[in-house]
Amino acid sequence: MQNGTTDKDLPALTEVYRGQDPVVDVVAIHGLNGHAIETFKTKKTGKFWLGDEDLLPSHLKQARVLTFSYNASVAALFGSASADRIMQHAHTLIAELVADRELEDAVRRPIIFICHSLGGIVLKRALAYSSSRTSKQVQHLHSIFVSTYAILFLGTPHNGSSTASLASIGRRLVDAVVPSKVFDSEGQLLDALKEDSEVLQNITDMFAPLMKRFRIYFFWEQEKTDFGATRGYVVDKESAAPILDDTERAGLSYDHRGMCRFESRNSPGYRLVVAALLRYVREAQGVIPRRWADATEMLRSERANEAAELLGP
User: Residues 31-70: pLDDT tens digits?
Assistant: First the structure.
């Protein structure tokens, strides 16, 4: 890491910017072998577009910007228990966000997520989990699903295709961030990325029925990553930006690692990403309160039905 910090040095959620009287929480989630801060910093100058005052904060003056820190090493995410590990990160993300927002007295504040690479897989699993938490004892966990308005997916592998299975995408993700000798010492890319395992596909399938609830913007990498012996796309356009109704999609002229880093306001793709964020912040102000009204009524009805069942005929 550029400044010597590791994710272990950070809390699960780090506030990197707080505007005056925030009306939205923007939450960034890094990917494989990533870091809650360094993943979003440029390598040469260390510009941190999420928190540097002259970049994103200058546009979102009434926002909180947070980053989520979790163990995203290859060994931690993949292997025979990979589905469980991704689920654990997903559960932690929801629990931490709920606790943070309760302490901030901001449970109903709209949320917009920015996800790089496999961070998007963690988020999809998290929102599927949050959507199902409606029983009395855990209904507070449902609040993240209700409050989420939009998601920006930057190079997240959503599905495989005839030319790019999830297994091959996973192998390229590892090749892009881990030296081959380290990878070899950890064994082959493990059960999670075998074509007959489909952990990532199962999470995508879980998320699919929920997608209509959110504004979604898919971004794909337009530059190839240098793997040493070869160059190639880590996540191809078809997987990173599936053509789906009511979603937006665009390419960013970076390789997989560079697509979540912006040096300045004039950097390629910066205005595209920020304009989308601004649009979603404006729209969320009217939509999320209505969703909370609907959710409150739904939960009230569930509690009434449970009480009626207890009383019996």
Answer: 888 899 999 999 999 999 999 999 999 999 999 999 999 9
Q: Which residue has the tokens 């199902």?
A: 132
The pair of three-digit structure tokens given for residue 137, joined into one six-digit string: 């004892």
Structure tokens at 175: 């090749």
Q: Which residues contact 291 (CB under 8 A, 6 or more apart)?
A: 146, 147
Cα–Cα distance measured from residue 51 to residue 58, given in angstroms and rounded to the nearest whole number: 9
Q: Write out the DSSP string of 247-273.
A: EEEEEESS-TTGGG--SSTTSTTHHHH
- Label residues 276-294 b or e (16+ Cβ within 10 Å = b): bbeebbeebeeebeebbee
Q: Tokens 């927002």 correspond to what residue?
A: 101
Q: Indicate the pTM of the whole model.
A: 0.89
Contacts of 280 (CB under 8 A, 6+ apart): 112, 149, 150, 215
pLDDT tens digits, residue range 255-302? Answer: 999 999 999 999 999 999 999 999 999 999 999 999 999 999 999 998
User: What pLDDT score does 82 carry?
Assistant: 47
Question: What is the distance in angstroms between the CA of the first residue and the CA of the last residue of the chain?
Answer: 64
Q: How far apart are CA 313 and CA 306, in angstroms?
A: 13
> Both tokens of residue 179?
């030296």
